[in-house]
Amino acid sequence: MPKKRERDPVKFLLVEDNADLAAAICSRMQLDGHVIDHADTIQDAIAFSETGEYDLILLDIMLPDGDGRTFLQRHRAGKRDTPVIVLTARSQVSDRISMLDLGADDYVTKPFDHEELQARCRAVLRRKSGTAQTVMQIGDVAFDPVAGHLTVAGEVVNLRNRELRLLELLFNAPGQILAKQKLVDRLFSYDEDVSENAVEVYIGRLRKHLDRSSLRITTLRGLGYRLDHD
How much is the pTM? Predict the structure, then answer.
């Protein structure tokens, strides 16, 4: 029996100016197999959020160039629905209410335990999806993003973190073209020095896993990749 995963890989944007706290959060998230970008100012956070795609934003309030609520207001005014968890040292009920009213999905009061933060993240992501993740089936392939494996011709194949994340992107958009750059943005953080060719490595691995199935990953030169079903 494959080992059940406790959590799925997620792409985070962390907005936090405390270098020690940011390093600790980034380290723990990466150890758990997640991808995380770090901004320490509002302006950097805006640049990240408007050029990249994230599953969840962790937002500090007191930042060198202003109040994190400014970022939150702009984020929601732009009709972006990426969940936001506020990291705050403010414990007054009125402060928490104001953050929720501005569009925050949850808040965690500093100092906090990392396990609590992880639990809050999972809860917010479950609410956004509207349901717990279940096994996804296309043709003769069953993909379980929670357990971290797929089943092909009755054989269970365990996936590595980036293989898992890439396959989940493809399974969520069957028959649609996914650009290489979009996949790079979803699989890697900005501080990782990678090219679009890095995606080809993981595409190649997934093709081997799917070799005996009715699914294939089609390359469309100059455009990207598409998950097709025979």
Answer: 0.67
